[in-house]
Structures are given as C-alpha cells and as structure tokens.
C-alpha cells in the first residue's frame, strides 16, 4: 500500500451571486420612493451618477398584447406629502402639560412621573398602584391620592386601571352616574353577552329602564388616549398606473415619483495629475466609477422595464377586476405571469412584493391580484379566493342583523353559486377580514336595538 501526496482535478458548475447581482435583485423590490433614495445615495458617492428628480413625461403609447398598452403618466401623486401636518400634541405631552398645572409638591411630582411612565397609548395605566408606589418609593395611599388627581385630567377616562373605571370616570365627568348606570358598569360582561334579562335582574329594574343607560354607555370612549397618538396610515404613491385608454387598458410607471439616472461620462476628460503613478491611479478610479454608473443606469432601466412587463400582464389577466371590481378577480399565480413575461417566478415575486398599482378600483399592491383558484361545482372555470372573500363580505353586509348567516349557511350559498366551499374555509376567510362570528353579530344587533 503506497501512501503519498497526489493531485486531483475536478470540474463543476455553480451559480455565484455577485455583489452586482445582489444589488439588481434588491432594485426589483424597491418602490419608486425607495429607489429615489437609493439613487441619491449613489450620486453622493459616485461623481459620474447624476440623480434627476422625478419629472412628468409627455404621453407616449407602446402596444402590448391583448389590448393592453403602456404609456407614461403625468399625474401628480405627490400631493399628499405637501399637506400640512395638523396633528396635535402626543398623549404624553398633553398629560405632562396638565400635570405641571396641578401644582404638585416634589414628592407628588415624583409619583406623577411614575404614573406617566405606566401610561399606555390607550390612556389606561399598565401597572397596578402597588407597582407604581414601589417604583416611586412611596406608600399605596400616597399613590392613590395622586392617581385621583391625575384622573381628573381631560379628556376624562385617562389613567384608568380597567374598562369599568375608564367608563366610570367619563360618566362622572358628564354627570351620568345614576344607580342604574352604576349597576350597568358593575356588570359589563352581561352587556357584552347581550343578556338583557339577566342585566335587568341584577340591576333590579325593567329592561325599558336599561335602554337610556345603554345608549349613554355606548357613547363613551373606551380608549380616550388613542385620539392623541392615532397617526394616519401613510398613503404611498403608486409605482404603476392602470386606466382605460382609447385603444384598451393602459399601464405605465408613475413618472411623477420615478427618478432617473444620467451618466456624466464627460467628466472622464477632466485634467489628470502629471505624475505617472497618480495619473494611473486616477485612470483606474475613473474607469471603475464610470463602469459602476453605467451598470446602475442599465440596472434601473431593466428594473423599470421588468416592472412594466409584469404590470401589463397582470392588467391583461385582470381586466374583469378593473372593470367590475373584486367580484371579478380571476385566479392567477406567479408561475403563470412568469411564463407569460419570460422571467423566473422569483423575479415576479420580488417585483410584486414592493410595487403598488393604481386602478379604477383603488390602489393595490401587485400581490393583491394573485389569488388561488377554488374548485368549481361543475366543469366551469374555477373561482378565485379573492372573489369568494368579496362574496362572503357582501352576504354578511346584506344579512338580517337579528338573524345573521352562520358560516355553514354562507358556505351553502356560495356552493350553490358554483364554487365548492367548506364551512371551515368560510370561517378562515371571515377571520382574515376581521368579521366577527354570527353569534357576536347577533349580540351586537340586540344591543343596537336596545339602545335606539
């Protein structure tokens, strides 16, 4: 047996994800706003990159299959950003200003600071009085005294320890505290269960006597602190715009938010140092930076072209949705769009995860248009999960409040319309849309009827 060194050669193929390829993949996932920030950052590092602000372009038509075209848009989707911020002070700033006006002693101010630390966005305190007292190094009696002072800060209901106390503080401020009202506050679980007979029995009154108290109770705010920190949902401008044109549907990039890149290749002709070594180093730097700038311009152009092609294919397949709404949403998968466009399925997934499209039905992320197919009762074309969810919402909206549809009844109705649907599927879709169960909807209808 001979043991000694030897050489062996093997050949294999592997995919190397270079830094440029990684960056190109990230560009596909960027919306127009994020892309603008990225290009501006590149322009600060690279002297050959000139970031141009978004500019509306004149209309131009480019034909696509199936009466879907792409054209530029000069719609200004940046008007929302110019609106003034009219939000008031935060909850913490509001309460802190009122605490300073209470004229507290230094010891009481320390206790008030501990309660401020325990204040939650809802306006309630997230700790017990004992925990706040221990944090401030005082007795529970002292903490209770300061808490009573802070509970008088407007709006009423702040610094409550639970729902009943929050509603009690508001009722006290509005002079609503009658014996019946206080009894209702002590039995809120019966109110939630819509057990009017049981509530009347424990309150020792008639059901008719409960109606004014329940009406006043529903007018109170269970989370008085939410009005301060309720920031508006940001409305992102769309990256693609789809609308009906003279020759069919038109889709294009939103030019009012889309930045552009200009490669300043003329800068390479600037004077160079006289020393050979410095001149060679400058030449290498210029060549490398210029190559990066040109690659970035090509990558952005490829990103825009890919986004347009995918958006146009989505519009071609979902013309029923654009014309008639969610009920006409067709089943569509990433693989189908990828095969039609001629790209990989992962490319479609990346583009659809970050881009928004404005349509006559509203502004939606591209992934909204992809929905699974459900089995049909006959040989007809299967329906989409999105259209079924819309149908479930319509059925619940049209139901009788006192006799709401159960999940089983909804499943039978949808199945009779040609789409096989199980009860558990209805329950899953209903929970996805934050719609309560039929029992909860019935209880709410009973309370509505009693408080009219």
From TrEMBL:
<dbReference type="Pfam" id="PF04963">
    <property type="entry name" value="Sigma54_CBD"/>
</dbReference>
<comment type="similarity">
    <text>Belongs to the sigma-54 factor family.</text>
</comment>
<comment type="function">
    <text>Sigma factors are initiation factors that promote the attachment of RNA polymerase to specific initiation sites and are then released.</text>
</comment>
<keyword id="KW-0238">DNA-binding</keyword>
<dbReference type="Pfam" id="PF00309">
    <property type="entry name" value="Sigma54_AID"/>
</dbReference>
<keyword id="KW-0805">Transcription regulation</keyword>
<dbReference type="GO" id="GO:0016987">
    <property type="term" value="F:sigma factor activity"/>
</dbReference>
<dbReference type="InterPro" id="IPR001387">
    <property type="entry name" value="Cro/C1-type_HTH"/>
</dbReference>
<feature type="domain" description="RNA polymerase sigma factor 54 core-binding">
    <location>
        <begin position="87"/>
        <end position="264"/>
    </location>
</feature>
<dbReference type="InterPro" id="IPR007634">
    <property type="entry name" value="RNA_pol_sigma_54_DNA-bd"/>
</dbReference>
<dbReference type="GO" id="GO:0006352">
    <property type="term" value="P:DNA-templated transcription initiation"/>
</dbReference>
<keyword id="KW-0240">DNA-directed RNA polymerase</keyword>
<feature type="domain" description="RNA polymerase sigma factor 54 DNA-binding">
    <location>
        <begin position="284"/>
        <end position="443"/>
    </location>
</feature>
<keyword id="KW-0731">Sigma factor</keyword>
<keyword id="KW-0804">Transcription</keyword>
<dbReference type="GO" id="GO:0001216">
    <property type="term" value="F:DNA-binding transcription activator activity"/>
</dbReference>
<protein>
    <recommendedName>
        <fullName>RNA polymerase sigma-54 factor</fullName>
    </recommendedName>
</protein>
<feature type="region of interest" description="Disordered">
    <location>
        <begin position="50"/>
        <end position="75"/>
    </location>
</feature>
<dbReference type="InterPro" id="IPR000394">
    <property type="entry name" value="RNA_pol_sigma_54"/>
</dbReference>
<dbReference type="InterPro" id="IPR007046">
    <property type="entry name" value="RNA_pol_sigma_54_core-bd"/>
</dbReference>
<dbReference type="GO" id="GO:0016779">
    <property type="term" value="F:nucleotidyltransferase activity"/>
</dbReference>
<dbReference type="GO" id="GO:0000428">
    <property type="term" value="C:DNA-directed RNA polymerase complex"/>
</dbReference>
<dbReference type="InterPro" id="IPR038709">
    <property type="entry name" value="RpoN_core-bd_sf"/>
</dbReference>
<keyword id="KW-0808">Transferase</keyword>
<dbReference type="GO" id="GO:0003677">
    <property type="term" value="F:DNA binding"/>
</dbReference>
<keyword id="KW-0548">Nucleotidyltransferase</keyword>
<dbReference type="Pfam" id="PF04552">
    <property type="entry name" value="Sigma54_DBD"/>
</dbReference>
């Amino acid at each position: 047996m001979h043991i000694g060194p030897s050489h062996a050669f093997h050949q294999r193929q592997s995919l190397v994800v270079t830094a440029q390829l990684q960056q190109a993949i990230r560009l596909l996932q960027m919306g127009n706003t994020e892309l603008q920030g990225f290009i501006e950052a590149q322009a600060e590092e690279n002297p050959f990159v000139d970031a141009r602000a978004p500019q509306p372009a004149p209309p131009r038509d480019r034909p696509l299959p199936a009466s879907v075209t792409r054209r530029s848009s000069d719609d200004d989707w940046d008007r929302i950003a110019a609106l003034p911020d009219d939000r008031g002070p935060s909850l913490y700033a509001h309460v802190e200003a009122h605490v300073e006006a209470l004229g507290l002693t230094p010891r009481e101010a320390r206790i008030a600071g501990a309660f401020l630390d325990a204040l939650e966005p809802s306006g309630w305190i997230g700790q017990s009085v004992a925990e706040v007292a221990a944090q401030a190094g005082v007795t529970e009696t002292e903490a209770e005294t300061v808490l009573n002072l802070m509970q008088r800060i407007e709006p009423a209901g702040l610094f409550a320890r639970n729902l009943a106390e929050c509603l009690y503080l508001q009722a006290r401020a509005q002079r609503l505290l009658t014996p019946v009202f206080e009894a209702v506050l002590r039995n809120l679980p019966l109110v939630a269960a819509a057990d009017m007979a049981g509530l009347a029995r424990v309150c020792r009154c008639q059901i008719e006597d409960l109606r004014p108290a329940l009406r006043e109770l529903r007018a109170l705010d269970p989370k008085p602190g939410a009005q301060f920190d309720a920031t508006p949902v940001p409305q992102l401008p769309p990256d693609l715009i789809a609308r009906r044109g003279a020759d069919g549907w038109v889709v294009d990039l939103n030019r009012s938010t889309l930045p552009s890149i200009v490669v300043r290749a003329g800068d390479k002709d600037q004077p160079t140092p006289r020393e050979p070594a410095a001149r060679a180093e400058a030449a290498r730097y210029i060549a490398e930076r210029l190559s990066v700038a040109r690659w970035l311009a090509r990558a952005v152009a490829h990103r825009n072209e890919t986004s347009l092609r995918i958006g146009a294919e989505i519009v071609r397949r979902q013309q029923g949705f654009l014309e008639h709404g969610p009920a006409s949403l067709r089943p569509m998968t990433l693989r189908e769009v990828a095969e039609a466009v001629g790209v990989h399925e992962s490319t479609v997934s990346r583009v659809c995860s970050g881009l928004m499209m404005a349509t006559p039905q509203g502004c939606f992320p591209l992934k909204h248009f992809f929905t699974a197919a459900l089995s049909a009762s006959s040989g007809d074309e299967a329906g989409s999960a999105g259209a079924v969810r819309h149908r479930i919402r319509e059925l619940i909206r049209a139901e009788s409040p006192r006799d709401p549809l159960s999940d089983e009844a909804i499943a039978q109705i949808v199945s009779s319309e040609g789409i096989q649907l199980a009860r558990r599927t209805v329950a899953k879709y209903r929970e996805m849309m934050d719609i309560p169960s039929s029992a909860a909807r019935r209880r709410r209808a009973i309370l509505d009827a009693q408080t009219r």
